[in-house]
């Protein structure tokens, strides 16, 4: 079976969304598994549910701690659990921007309104008071601004004439449980989809100066220089030459560096067929949790090996 993404869930209370995610993960073929449930409240009811399902739990009260200090504690627990994704499920803490940055693109939140409407608290009452006929829930990627990141999915829930905030909340919660599972499954699955991986590499490669995409022997590739005389600095190998991997092929300084990298991290690097002899290295993209900053820095490095001298200063300001 394909590798399942490792998901940690942060809760502060009841944990009904956590329970929905956890039971969904029992389905055979679910692309994620829950590796940790953590809370800022040791009495959060959801912790007992997780423990009863044999999911490791971590809790620590945030009281008396600085925000950064507390988030660092949670971050350590997430690293310890080797989590690939963080899912906020009724986690009622504002997160420090340092913590958010560390999990950028890999942290989701669910919010009981149709964002961008009604960020913050009292969403049900506010929707009723406004005379809205429909409310709902949203799942979004977490960015440093509260309830503000890109929305990945929403479900509308009709507001009834005699709705109270409690009644509306109960129905929205049912919608939340289904929406959250679906969005999380989609998010973790796309990183195993070769087309999505190629698209992501394409975006990063074309951010470098004077680059264009060009297919080479059936593989997507990227070149620096003109359409006529450009040189390849990257390819994506999608199960090429019988390999079972989807990988980025980039240039190293030579076969010594190539061998050292493969020895140090054999789960990530391998020597690609044909290109290997000239020092190219394959960086696996099908791990389910690619570090895209790492891929971007490989692309920059490979670009600078082949780019014409006059272009070199253009990437120096882009970092390592
Ligand atoms: C959910 O309704 C969720 O949308 C909301 O807290 C509830 C948690 O319930 N989150 C927020 O308001 C975040 N801004 P649960 O503990 O039963 O999953």
What are the key terms here?
320 residues; Rossmann fold; Aspartate Aminotransferase, domain 1; 6-stranded antiparallel β-sheet; 13 strands; elongated; binds glycinamide ribonucleotide
* Overall number of domains: 2
What is the approximate shape? elongated
The CATH superfamily title of the largest domain:
Formyl transferase, N-terminal domain
- Which CATH top level class of the largest domain fits? Alpha Beta
- Strand portion: 15-25%
**What is the CA-based Rg, rounded?**
23 Å
Could you report the average pLDDT, rounded to the nearest whole number?
94
Provide a count of the helices. Answer: 10
Which regions have little confidence, pLDDT < 50, spanning 5+ residues?
A: none
- Give the proportion of residues in helices: 25-40%
Give a structural overview.
A seven-stranded mixed β-sheet has the order 3-2-1-4-5-6-7, with helices on both faces. It has a six-stranded antiparallel β-sheet with strand order 8-9-10-11-13-12. It has helices at residues 16-24, 45-52, 67-80, 97-102, 123-129, 165-190, 194-206, 255-264, 292-306, 313-316; strands spanning 5-11, 32-39, 57-59, 85-88, 107-111, 134-141, 151-158, 211-213, 221-224, 231-238, 246-251, 269-270, 280-284. Helix content is 35%, strand content 22%. By secondary structure, the protein is an alpha/beta fold. It has ten helices and 13 strands. Helix 1 (16-24) packs parallel to helix 6 and helix 5 (123-129) packs across helix 6. It starts with a strand and ends with a helix. The mean pLDDT is 94. The longest helix has 26 residues, at 165-190. It has two domains: 5-192, Rossmann fold (3-Layer(aba) Sandwich), CATH 3.40.50.170; 194-317, Alpha-Beta Complex (Aspartate Aminotransferase, domain 1). It binds glycinamide ribonucleotide (GAR). Glycinamide ribonucleotide binds at residues 11, 13-17, 89-90, 110-112, 137, 147, 173, 176.
